[in-house]
Amino acid sequence: MMGTKRARWFSPTLTPYLLVLPVLLYYAAFWLQPVVTVVIQSFRDPVTGAFTLNNFALVLQDKDFWPAFWNTFIIVSISVALEFVVALALSLLIYRRFWGSGIFFFLMLIPMALPPVATGAIWKTGLTAHGWLNSLLIHLGVLAEGKKIYWLGTPRTPKWQLLTLIILVDAWTVIPSVMVILVAGLQNLPREVIEAGYVFGGTYWRVLRDIILPMLRPTIQTAVVLRLISAIQIWLIIVLLFGFSRVPVLVERIVYYHEEVRGLDIAPAMTTGYTVIVAFIVSAAALLYLYLSGAFEGEKAS
Amino acid sequence: MAEVQLINLTKRFGRRVLAVDHIHLTVKDREFLVLLGPSGCGKTTTLRMIAGLEEVSEGTILIDGEDVTYLPPRARNVSMVFQNYAVWPHMTVYENIAYPLRLKKVPRDEIDRRVKEVAELTKIAELLDRYPSQLSGGQQQRVALARAIAVKPKVFLMDEPLSNLDAKLRVHMRTELKAIHHQTQATTIFVTHDQSEAMSMADRIVVMREGRIEQVGTPEEVYEKSANMFVASFIGLPPTNFFYTEVRRENDALKLVHPYFTLTLSPEQAARLKDYTKSRLVLGVRPENLLLTTEDQALFSVEAMVVEPQGSHQIIAFQMDDQIVKIVAPAYPKVWPGERIHVTFRPERIRFFDPETQQAVGDEA
Amino acid sequence: MMDPKIQYRLRKAARQMLLYLVVLTITLVIMTPVYFITVLSFLTTREAYEYPLPLYPTFTIRMKMERGKRGYLLSVWDRNEQAYVSVLDTDDADKMRVYMETYLGLKPSNEQVTEVMQKVDATGGQPVYFAWRRHILSNYATFFRVTRDAVPALIRSLQIAALTIAISLSIGGAAGYAFARYRFYGKNALKFSVLFVRMFPGVAIAIPMVIILARIGLYDRPAGLSLLYSVGVIGMTVWITASIFMAIPVSLEEAAMVFGATRLQAFLRITLPLAFPGLAAAAMYAFIGAWNETVAAIILTEFNPTFSVVVYQTLLGATGQVNLTAAGGMAMALPAVVFTFFIRRYIHQMWGGVTV
Questions:
Q1: Between chains, do B51 and A199 touch, taking CB under 8 Å as contact?
Q2: Burial of C307 (0-12, 13-18, 19+ CB in 10 A)
Q3: Which of residues 252-291 of C touch A (CB under 8 A)?
Q4: C101 - beta bridge partners?
Q5: C7: nearest CA in chain B?
Q6: Residue B313 pLDDT class (50, 70, 90 cuts)
Q7: What distance in Å separates the CA atoms of residue A274 and residue A101, rounded to the nearest whole number?
Q8: With an 8 Å Cβ cutoff, are A122 and C34 in contact?
Q9: Residues of C near B (CB-CB distance < 8 A)?
Q10: Whole-angstrom Cα distance, residue C202 to residue C295?
Q11: 3-state DSSP: chain B helix, strand, coil percent, rounded to 5?
Q12: Quick check: A198 and B90 CB within 8 A?
């Protein structure tokens, strides 16, 4: 047949590999190459190129390193836990379709879709002393006419207040999107399997604990690990609200040394040092979470 | 074990859709009752209302005389086998069977004993440590069954439990389900759209259409004494043939005139129809009650159009104007398409229907 | 004991109430900030300096002009005070026009201003009341006029997004098709690359990319950024396109091949048109990714910033002029939100299907 002759210009078993190959090459060129480059660079003296651990030493001696580390740690641990618990509770409340659910789920996607700088614009204009939040409170009669709350603090405001504010703003941005993931996961659970729980004697709480949550586990793992990865990289909203160096966090340090003080001798060393440390922390945290939550076991079992 | 009563049971979806329309039904203790009907007839909705999974719009459900209409599923002491098995994928077979017992706070050694017992009964004893993903569809169905039996419910509810199995296994499982029912003697309500499944398993069949009950009866009753034209055509394969006739009343004799034949009814049939005064009447004749005969005894003669040999018998189809009529005849003598065949009715098996109301007429009281 | 039916109905009603209460609360919490940034982006500069800020914008400016000490006294209606507030006293028509343009968002000509002044003269110093309509988008126009680089940056951002779509859809789409139609070695490993790639933070890729892009002459160029953005987007594109192709039955392609089409023809003539809406969604997803990104753009641009970097810089340096800042933020947000509206169904589907 003519058709077959024409069609076999390469072996059909090779086809999938040929289709996948560009992705692999792309990852090699623009993911693996930068990763290797930056790791090698971090062990080299920026000037001489000789092997050194000095870059990391410099970072660890940086007076802002430990504050940045602990700020990041506090923000991540509280916000991931808080966002997950709130999002789970809300998604369990609303996962059934209801009148207006379509438009409601779209509204929830908005904070996720907003560019970070737009989120920054929203909260910066809102949280300044003359911002819309105080104005709203005055219009609602909560604040007396002409009074104001210094949301962004004064130089003497304790740090935990600033961190709380950051966590709340982050929660606004992120909870809806975590919720969307969880609701989608809940809606994909087979209905009969949950109903079987009720028929065979389960109360809502027992069914939730013994059937819904275990079956939702893969979705929960996805949601949390994605959240964890991006939570550690928080910086833009902090810089837009407070400027550089007021509440240092890890990624903010990278941008600070790369952009703000690039003239400094130690800037290149600091940049690569921080970069590799941050990358290490992010991957380690993600893998540790996946390991602890049993994601790797699950893969073997099924 | 228990009796289930549905009184005036109604389910509305939104304002318009009436899924179940004021039905009354009593399921007797130890009975195997089948709800049968085409998809969308309300049979599954009825079952789910009994289970407590669907809110009742109107009416009452009694189990053993107790009003359970507004009780949550867990308080009804029923168990259910779902169409898609609905075994819990994150639990082993053992845990699947044991979990409902743990919810009911059955002592641990009693749980163990019961799990082993039902596993034996449903032939999954060697699968107890496996996860559902490692089982075939048929095995998962057995797990679902074992789980339902283990809780020793008042009522078993089964929602098309065999429809996802392949044809051969389905027929095999019918026998097994029936045997298990014989052993457990549990009141069972079984939903299906497959009339042969219903015929082979049911003590009584409830035929439903558009939210209403069309007929309740034993398989023989619904087959031989179908209450209306819908039941007559839905039950049995090939379905009942209908012949639309004019009624001629001459003295005491009754004649039914069809373009192809004129049938004179026996005196007793005529007697049964003496209260029927309309001018048109439908004859319902099941395919096996159309007989091939010799030319001189034939009611009418036609040309066979299609012949489907079935091994044990053959199905002969012929055309009467725009209507196709089917005959189930013995395998021999063989009939060929185009062959002229001579047909008569088995007179005592003819059923009569009112073409306007579609209801059967002329039955003995 | 209450009637069980009434008890049941009450419980159900309570559940419904709770559901809608939660839905309403979430909606308010999400929408209030969005509402205010929108309002801010439409306020006049004068209103933007008021405190408290008004709850909604107006586009008709009510003004009063009368004889003043130095010339003509201009007063503007103040919604907080519920009165005319004097703002400027001058006899220079040009000065008055500039004030109106800067603070009131109006665009009068000198002649129009002079005309009002003449009216004041004609009435013998009696106040003249007048109301002028303001252009709705005046803040947006002003933002793009006064912000250095805003327009070229916007164009660059669009170029980057288009290029990212092209790269990720062609490369990721091919792999997505392979995922949907073939079984092959390493399929599972590749499936998790989405996650794996993300475990290395974007900044950590951006920093060494400075050198790599400089080497191939793409540093500070739109193309360079889209190369980087595609790394993050490709993984998701593979996921989305795979699920789209999976939803199109192979039998359709096979039917085409039975009738003499080659595999490629079958794909181009049958599958591709059917997959179009889904592919459009994947493209919009790529657009949003590229359009929104900021960190790498800050690191990888020098003289040719993207639009997000421009907005970032105005925000960082912004003191006052909140209405213009808000307009910038809104201009940034709008495309992303609109595209999200179109692809919301796919996002839903996708998140339901993506699991670790």
A1: yes
A2: buried
A3: 257, 260, 262-263, 288, 291
A4: none
A5: B70
A6: very high
A7: 44
A8: yes
A9: 4-5, 7-8, 12
A10: 8
A11: 30, 35, 35
A12: no
- Interface residue of B88, B95, B105, B114 to substitute, partner A, most A CBs within 10 Å: B88
Chains with 3+ CB–CB pairs under 8 A to B are A, C
**What span, in angstroms and rounded, lies between the C-alpha atoms of B229 and B237?**
14
Using alpha carbons only, what angle is made at residue C236 by residues C234 and C239, rounded to the nearest 5 degrees? 110
Q: What pLDDT band is residue C356 in, cutting at 50, 70 and 90?
A: very low
B104:A214 CB<8 A: no
SS (H, E, C) B228-283: EHHHHHHCCCCCCEEEEEEEEEECCEEEEEECCEEEECCHHHHHHCCCCCCCEEEE
- How far apart (Å, rounded) are the C-alpha atoms in residues A165 and A163? 5
Probe site for chain C from B56, B60, B70 (most C CB atoms < 10 A): B70
CA distance A131 to C273: 50
Does C355 lie at the interface with A, CB-CB under 8 angstroms?
yes
Contact call for residues B67 and B60 (beta carbons, < 8 A): yes
Query: pLDDT tens digits, residue range A40-76?
Result: 989 998 888 888 888 899 999 999 999 999 999 999 9
Q: What is the DSSP letter of B82?
A: B
Partners of residue C4 in chain B, C-beta under 8 Å: 67, 69-71
Query: A54-98+159-294: which CATH number, 1.10.3720.10, 1.10.1900.20, 3.20.20.140, 3.90.550.10?
Result: 1.10.3720.10
| Residue B188 three-state SS | strand
Which of B190, B167, B166, B191 has the alpha carbon at shortest distance from B180? B190
Inter-chain residue contact C262 with A6, CB threshold 8 Å: yes
Checking C69-72 for CB contacts under 8 A at 24+ apart, the result is C72/C96, C72/C117, C72/C120
User: For C298-329, what is each residue's pLDDT tens digit?
Assistant: 999 989 999 999 999 888 876 557 888 899 99
| Cis amide bond preceding B333, omega within 30 | yes
ipTM for the whole complex? 0.86
DSSP state of B85: B
Which residues of chain A have a CB within 8 Å of the CB of B147?
200
Picking from A4-13, B46-55, C326-335, which range would have the lowest pLDDT averaged per residue? A4-13
User: For residue A199, which residues of chain B lie inside 8 Å, CB to CB?
Assistant: 51-53, 73-74, 78-80, 157
Please indicate if any CB of chain A lies within 8 Å of the CB of C158: no
Tokens coding A146: 């002409």
Q: Which domains does chain B have, with CATH numbers?
A: 4-234 (3.40.50.300), 241-361 (2.40.50.140)
3-state SS class at B214? strand
Q: Encode pLDDT of A176-193 as tens digits.
A: 888 888 888 888 889 999
Q: Do A90 and C199 touch (CB under 8 A)?
A: no
Strands C60-67 and C72-78, by their bridges, are: antiparallel
Q: Does residue C2 sit at the A interface (CB-CB below 8 Å)?
A: no
**pLDDT at res. B44:** 94
All structural domains of chain C: 60-134 (no CATH), 148-317 (1.10.3720.10)
* Residue-level pLDDT at C350: 62
Q: Are B46 and B9 in contact (CB under 8 A)?
A: yes
In chain B, which residues have their Cβ closer than 8 Å to the Cβ of A302? 133
Say if the Cβ atoms of B89 and A193 lie within 8 Å: yes
Query: Between chains, do C203 and A134 touch, taking CB under 8 Å as contact?
Result: no
| Nearest Cα residue to C172 out of A31, A13, A17, A26 | A26
Amino acid, single-letter form, for residue B103: L
Whose tokens are 């969880």? That residue is A182
pLDDT of res. C147: 85
